[in-house]
Amino acid sequence: MLKAREAVRNLPTYHPPLSGRDGLRLDFNENTVGCSPQVLARLREITAEDIARYPERAPVERIVADYLGLKPNELLLTNGVDEAIHLLCEAFLEPGDEVLIVVPTFAMYEICAAATGARVIAVPAGKEFCFPTADLLSQITSRTRLIAVANPNNPTGSVAAPEELFEIARRAPQTAILVDEAYFEFYGQTLLGQWRNLPNIFIARTFSKAYGLAGLRIGVLAGSAEYISLVNRVGSPYNVNGVALCCLPTALADDDYIRTYVEQVRRGRDLLREEFRRWGVRHWPSQANFVLASFGELKTVFVQAMRARGILVRDRSRDHGCEGCVRITLGTSEQTERLLIALRESFMEIGVKEVAAK
Known about the structure:
By secondary structure, this protein is an alpha/beta fold. The protein has helices at 6-9, 37-45, 48-52, 58-68, 80-92, 107-115, 133-138, 162-171, 184-187, 225-233, 242-253, 255-279, 299-308, 333-350, and strands at residues 24-25, 75-78, 98-103, 119-124, 144-150, 176-180, 201-206, 219-222, 290-294, 311-312, 314-315, 325-329. The strands form three sheets. A seven-stranded mixed sheet has the order 2-8-7-6-5-3-4, with helices on both faces. The chain has a three-stranded antiparallel sheet with strand order 9-12-11, with helices on one face.
C-alpha cells in the first residue's frame, strides 16, 4: 500500500477559512482596497503571447533588486513567502535537524520544516508577547539549523529588535536565520543587507499585503549570493507565474499608492487601539496592519456581531497563548470609520461596557 513519508503523515494542517468571505475583509491582513489602478491597467495590456510563454524571472529580479538596493544575485522571487519558507527548509534541513520558532506565529514555518523530518521546537513568547531572546538562545544546540522569526509577528504584531536578531545570528552561525518581513511597510525597519556582516541571515518579503497582490502569489527571499544560489537549486525555474512578473514592476513604481495606503492603515491602527482603550478591551501594541485583542468568552459572539454588520474579523483562539483573541486588519480611513461604528454597535449588543472617562 502506498504511504506518504511519516513526517508528512504527522504534519499539522493549515485550513484558512477562505470560503464565505462576503463583506469588508478585515480578517486576512490583505490590502483592503486591492492593488494599484496602474497594475490593473498593466493587466489589461497582457497579450496571449505573454501567457503562452514560460515566465522569465531574471529581468524582474533585477528590477526588484534595484528597488531594494540589492544585487540581483542576492535575491530570489518566489511564489509568495510560503514558497520562500519551503525552499529554505528544503535547502538546509535534514531529518533530525532542529528548528526553532517563537509561538504564536505563522503556521507555515512549522509545516514546511516538519515536512523535511526536522524536529520543530516551539519557544513561547514572553509576557505580553514580547520576543523571548534569552529563552530562544537557550534552545540553540549543535543540531539547530533554522530559526524563523516573523518581524513584525503574526498574529501579535510584536517585533524583535535588530540587536536581538543579530545576537541570535552570531550565536548560531551554523543556522539559517529567517527574518520574515511580510509586514515591513507598516513597520519601517528592515535587516536587508545584514547578511554582508552575518551571512546566515535571510530576509523574506511579500507583495500580498501592502501591495494588494495576494492573488498573484509573489514574494522575495533575500540573502548572501552564495546561499541564495544554493536555495535556487531546489526551486523551479518557472515558480513565479508570468502575470505576476508582468505586474510587479508596475506595482513597485507606484510608490504614491502604497505610501497613501500605509499612512491610512497606521492612522487606523492608532484609532482602533484608542477605541479599545475606551471600552476597556485588552489588546497589544502592533507594528503590522492589524491589532490583536482579547474578548475572552465573548469572542465568538463578537465575531458574529461584526459579521452581521458586514465586517469580517479573524478568531485566533487556536494560536498558542491567544485563547479568546480576535485579530482585526486595518484598511483605509473610510473603512476604519466604518469599523469603529460597527465595533461600538457590537460592543453594546454583546454587553461590553464603555470605561468611564477619567
